[in-house]
Amino acid sequence: MEIERVQDIACLSKDTIPEEFIRSENEQPVITTVHGVNLEVPVIDMSDLDEEKISHLIVDASQKWGMFQIINHGIPEEIMNQFKSVGKEFFELPQEEKEVYAKEPGTMEGYGTSLQREIQAKKGWVDHLFHKIWPPSVINYKFWPKNPPSYRKANEEYVKNLHGVVDRLFKSLSKGLGLEENELKEAAGGNELVYLLKINYYPPCPRPDLALGVVAHTDMSCITILVPNDVQGLQASRDGHWYDVKCSPNALIIHIGDQIEILSNGKYKSVLHRTTVNKDEARMSWPVFLEPPTDFEVGPHSKLVNEENPPKYKTKKYGDYCYCKLNKIPQ
Ligand code: OGA
Ligand code: NI
């Protein structure tokens, strides 16, 4: 069966959208967003010479928000622009050229549209492309677009520049738990940590008041490092309300995912977030999910649990965690 892409549906929809994209009232952005208030997600300047201060801010934001932005992170603007530009060019290719990279049943990587899993399921106004970008041993170039020709180079340059940021984040979070600076990353997969890129493409939507892009969720990853284009759309939940997150230009948006919440035994919080869509402009975002290998066991760090602090989460293989979450089976 041919799967309909939201990008095609968007071309046919002028003033209305198909029923399956209309969210129930308790989800519709027009009803559930706190308007006129932007959430002041912490903005952390990574070029501050006081490394202790940076660490402290990262730890504080990860406890209170599960989300923060980093600026002056050292990735050159040109590298980020190239990385975004080749992804945009891919989504602007004719549909049949994108379908060459279509996901096959049961695979995570490839071009696709989220399938419905619930009974009363609604669809998100978004298509995506998933592929791993690190380490080299897990990369399958089959899922990397050949067009534009500079796609591969631009992605490789971005990953190369991302490592430093990843290490700084893990070190700060590790020290914030009272661990040695390498211990948190080791417990998350160490050098086998997988970087999974997702490119989200949210076409213009005639009824952004009624539809959602990605529905409310926390990321399963350890940490997610996201770059958006300049169209507003990311929302975070605070005290049961939804707020627009204003992203600083050239910032990297950091999400604490479920695995860091688990490893920290609940000290750090994974952030509940979702996305809205725009009437006139396509929104895009490029999250990189930092994930343990599938067979790698993750649980509260052994140095953080004892008789007074029992584990609050089960220890299990990352693949099993994902299976349960995706199929809505209790962990
Ligand atoms: C996601 C996600 C946010 C965004 O794909 O997991 O939360 O800003 N995306 O597109
Ligand atoms: Ni997410």
UniProtKB/TrEMBL annotation:
Q: Which family does it belong to?
A: Belongs to the iron/ascorbate-dependent oxidoreductase family.
The superkingdom listed in its UniProt entry is Eukaryota
Q: Where is the Fe2OG dioxygenase domain?
A: 192-292
Query: What UniProt keywords apply to this chain's record, in alphabetical order?
Result: Iron, Metal-binding, Oxidoreductase, Vitamin C
**Which InterPro entries does the protein's record reference?**
DIOX_N, IPNS-like_FE2OG_OXY, IPNS-like_sf, Oxoglu/Fe-dep_dioxygenase_dom, Plant_2OG-oxidoreductases
Q: Note whether rRNA-binding occurs among the keywords.
A: no
Q: What is this protein called?
A: Fe2OG dioxygenase domain-containing protein
What is the species listed in this Swiss-Prot or TrEMBL entry? Answer: Hevea brasiliensis
